[in-house]
Protein 1
Amino acid sequence: MSMSKYIMLHHGAGAREMWNIIEALIISKVPTKLRKLPRGAGIDVLDDGAVIPISDNEYLVLSVDSYTVNPIFFPGGNIGHLAVNGTINDLVVMGAEPKAFMDTIIVEEGFPLSDLEIIINSMLKALKNEGIALIGGDFKVMPKGSIDKVVITGVGIGITDKPIIDKDIKPGDKIIVTSPIAEHGAAILAAQLGLLDEVKNLRSDSRPLSRTLLPLIKKYKKYVHAARDPTRGGIAAVLNEWVRSSNFSITIHRDKVPIREDVKAFLEAMGIDPLSMASEGSAVLAVDGVVAEEFVKELRSRGEDYATIIGEVTKPDSEILRGRVLAITEIGGKIILEPKSVNLPRIC
Amino acid sequence: MSMSKYIMLHHGAGAREMWNIIEALIISKVPTKLRKLPRGAGIDVLDDGAVIPISDNEYLVLSVDSYTVNPIFFPGGNIGHLAVNGTINDLVVMGAEPKAFMDTIIVEEGFPLSDLEIIINSMLKALKNEGIALIGGDFKVMPKGSIDKVVITGVGIGITDKPIIDKDIKPGDKIIVTSPIAEHGAAILAAQLGLLDEVKNLRSDSRPLSRTLLPLIKKYKKYVHAARDPTRGGIAAVLNEWVRSSNFSITIHRDKVPIREDVKAFLEAMGIDPLSMASEGSAVLAVDGVVAEEFVKELRSRGEDYATIIGEVTKPDSEILRGRVLAITEIGGKIILEPKSVNLPRIC
């Protein structure tokens, strides 16, 4: 693997360059037995959270993410709102009930206290709505110029009797997307480009999935073989990670992927594939074909009106498709869907 | 409480201004029942970690801290080394055996990969030395100019059958300091001032306390009423937090506080009280008078040659001392020791 001598933006973009650097600098250097706790899951699987068994049939799920989004206030939310919802969703897609939260807030000297208060109030409201306890944290101030405004780290603590660890996909599983994709990424991109006045209908989908999706993941737990919230890198990154180390392939139909017209038009104009763009209120799942239709129906009855099966896990019919994602285009073409580093830093 | 309209450096300095802002913006707004998990400890006590009961006699202890130290390489360590050791020590002073670690690394675009590698290798070595598993993390890149080099957040996961929650101090408890104080703060200050060439013997004490202190905390667990690693704000901040909401007082003898001559001379020249300066390899404890001497003796036999009793918890003999710390000076004077905001950002 060749690497630049300096950290570049694509090293943090959620696609192959990021996994390569994490593998080279970190994972490959950790002894196998220190990659997880006994019977748990850690960096041995690249999932949204770590799993710690706490009794014969109970697991603690822990997640950690740093939120660096720019701008910190955006249509549909703010960095505090995003940090809590993003953390909740990381637990939900692991099959865990969110129970507690810890945070660190790093603020730039000179930052307006009133803005910090809005951000913190958003966090506390999002926690309170879900009955999640705030059990610890850290607060640091950095001198002016050494950090841009605010960075928040969220630690999520959840409980489950059956963690969904994304290593069990198998042929026949249907790929489900729960709601229109790329909403968050499109809104942040428009904000960064100063285009919010022109493209008024873009709005982050930042929201918790604990009410709509979690009950179904719990109900169908033995049929849910993988679940992820497609943030950095979008669903292209998630699907590629799922097949990367397997013998299978995933085929999706682009015209089935739920996406709002406004979002699609804006991203097309920008030359960005929505499949590589971040969502913050959507999930992608691999669900056993036996129950997938039912799963989607129930998602819709819970208010996820755009939940859809977009494809399935297959045994590849040619060697080139093994461990890869095949996208059938709107006009019937077949294209290998690669994970892409969209050059859009500070998206989450 | 009056507050500035903008975040200022002292809001992050570990003393009263910081606790005031955290109380005003966060703690006071969280409903009481969401300040901890049932039977656990959370933001209802201001301690180094949160406590989650996982069985009748086992508790998980979780800590989170963001490390923003500047410079990132300093005599005695680097930001990665500090993030792991600081996290370990937060667990140790809660009485917990460190078991697992998660991190987030935020790097500035353009940062040299070779430096990042040194930092990460230090982290991994520190974890490996203690047999601590790395079970998760996050990696973000921020554009040049939006973060100064590297910020690391450490999440510690430990186990204990008896968490040390700092709310049980009582008269007769002896205050023990385990090793010379203010070493880390002095080294960072000298580095920030560009004085490392002149004051050569300053060196951070960043190191894990899991070998020397933890076995004794476990052995004497029912006698250890409080324990803390005095980082931001130093032992002045810790002792004040301990008595702040109690009816007691703490009396310490300044001449008994272990401190190296080099460190003392440098800080005196800078006009800074070492009692307000950060350590990263020392701890302060309130231990029942019945076993305190023995505790110190055993600490010394384990290599903590400078472990010392510096004072004790008392029933205040005048109202003015209630909830305050009294320092007997080297010449016998009596001074109220206030927590001070040393104007030294990015110390940890």
Protein 2
Amino acid sequence: MLRTLKLTLAYDGTDYVGWQRQPNGPSVQAQLEQALERIEGRAVKVTGAGRTDAGVHALGQVASVTLDHDLDVTTLARALNATLPDDIRVIEVVDAAADFDARSNAHGKLYRYCVVTGPRVSPFERRHVWHVPQALECATMRKGAALLCGEHDFAAFQAVGGSVKTSVRRIDRIDIDARPPPASPAVGCGVTVEVEGNGFLRHMVRIIVGTLIEIGAGRRAVDDVARAIESGRRADAGPTAPARGLFLVQVRY
Amino acid sequence: MLRTLKLTLAYDGTDYVGWQRQPNGPSVQAQLEQALERIEGRAVKVTGAGRTDAGVHALGQVASVTLDHDLDVTTLARALNATLPDDIRVIEVVDAAADFDARSNAHGKLYRYCVVTGPRVSPFERRHVWHVPQALECATMRKGAALLCGEHDFAAFQAVGGSVKTSVRRIDRIDIDARPPPASPAVGCGVTVEVEGNGFLRHMVRIIVGTLIEIGAGRRAVDDVARAIESGRRADAGPTAPARGLFLVQVRY
């Protein structure tokens, strides 16, 4: 009997071309589909809630898939994890409504971006943070973040060449927190940026973070954010922060 | 003017054959010596406090070196970190007494071993933990650990083929702690074992951890520890835990 499943996934995106299948290298989607095909015995297609870019990580990516298989969900999760590479893990499998679609049913997403500041002291974090040598002023970053919250046209905060119908999105909150003081001198200080919203344009979180980091480092004025929103010109926003510090934390339904 | 320096290092040991120079691959020692040679302009030799094995990590390895160079220590640390690969970091450089030797002057060392239990849920920790599927009983592990503390002949807890004069060592403490409950379902539960002592035989910490894990999983009796100490036979202790969960945290002088 056909059933629709909701899969929650965590992955280290470092060694992948991104979520989506692409001709130029291994994708998370292709790995997951291969693991499912071994169980299902035929080609399957999964839909991901968010098309994370090359090098972007996930703590709670969501995918939907239709299977003709009556394995219980716990056994299915275990079987998938036995087949998947160590850097992709299935956190949870649950039965979903027949018409559940991970992408079109998503109401919102939560992303987290991890920045480490000061000298690059940790040899363990390099795959999962952006290293910024300057100290960052969280208070001014928060002022810039406040201007981004709400519904706006984020045309200036998307990768050039995007082809979406509208670039209007709503950001529900942006939290900027200094990391707790590290317990070891081999762990750096840093800042974490969490962004929650109803949807995100291509590179939107990374451009938001790149802009806020410039504000926090004193290289850009808080008001630049308002100007970029108004002009809609990519050049008026900051640089795109690197993929490796970004995590898709949660998808809301 | 010749000066002796004390360097504190952190490294991710995953991609190295260990601390010590070896013909079969890159070592941390060789990387550090190469970085120092660029600054010094001639061959240099560093001495490490502990010869960490292939795949073992460090948060606070200590090395000594004699240089003929008057760079201040902060600039020297920065210059080394600019040359060293990202997975080896110099945490601190200080001037030391002319006769300081990182190896022979060490009074003791602190190691930490990280175990993750249950399903393998995190794609981010795989290079730095040992994954054990069974739940572990910390209370019984602590009873086994108590039998190891103090001065004993640890002949049963060293790699076969060791060539040290004596296998008597003193363990000052072994702390076994359940990890705080993870904030994300993509982070596993686990147990951390910290072992502090005046010196360690080859693989000693890893065999201690392998033995305690068997006790915690209920596959070995607490009293087996006393029997292994008494017999001195490697076969009476548990298996050698894998290198990737082990960190040299601190060297005491």
